[in-house]
Amino acid sequence: MDLAKHWRLRHARYRLEGQRNRLTGEVRFPPAPPLLGEREDIWEPYILKGRGRVYSFSVVRQPPEGFDDQPPYLVALVRLDEGPMVTAQLTDCDLDQVAIDMPVEMVTRRLRDLGPTGLIVYGYKFRPIVS
After folding, report:
1. Residue 64: what pLDDT?
2. What is the reported pTM?
3. What pLDDT does residue 13 have?
4. Which value, to the nearest 10 degrees, does the dihedral of the CA atoms of residues 102, 11, 83, 35 take?
5. Tell me: the pLDDT tens digits for 103-112?
6. How far apart (Å, rounded) are the C-alpha atoms in residues 107 and 71?
7. C-alpha span between 105 and 90 (Å, rounded)
8. Quick one: pLDDT at residue 54?
């Protein structure tokens, strides 16, 4: 990942910032440019609350390159309270604790370390809701 791309995505990654349609109230994540024929001002920035429920999940035992130090880890589809579904790593829970429909909340955590001269990339993960 290059620094410029990381900088452009910082609001979505750190604040879970999506967009809300000014007319319909629909919320989408991640932010995207207007569709062909849409007015440019139809979508406004919208910070999602960062809470939702596990829709589906999987245990990753053979990770892709760059994540060799993390297995096994959990990846889930999380349906956010505002509607969008996001894919994210689950953290702060054991493999046998996770369940479909489990309430979760967003936390900011380290995603990758690109080496001694590279960037440390942070972003969102989800954990069971802490009471």
Report:
1. 75
2. 0.79
3. 60
4. -150
5. 999 998 877 6
6. 20
7. 10
8. 97
pLDDT mean over 28-52: 91
CA angle, residues 5, 50, 30, in degrees to nearest 5: 35
What residues contact 25, with CB distance under 8 A and at least 6 apart?
none
The position carrying tokens 């604790």 is 97
Q: How many residues does the chain have?
A: 131
User: Cα angle at 54 between 52 and 57, to 5 degrees?
Assistant: 150
In this predicted structure, what is the pLDDT of residue 110? Answer: 76
Task: Report the sign of the C-alpha dihedral through residues 15, 19, 25, 27, in that order.
Answer: negative
Residue 22, both tokens: 């000014």
DSSP state string for 16-84:
-EEEEETTT--EESS--PPPTTS-TTSEEEEE---EEEEEEEEEESSPPTT-TTS-SEEEEEEEETTS-
Q: Name, in order, each residue with C-beta under 8 angstroms of 94's C-beta and a sequence gap of 6 or more.
A: none
Nearest-10 Cα torsion for 7, 13, 15, 17: 90
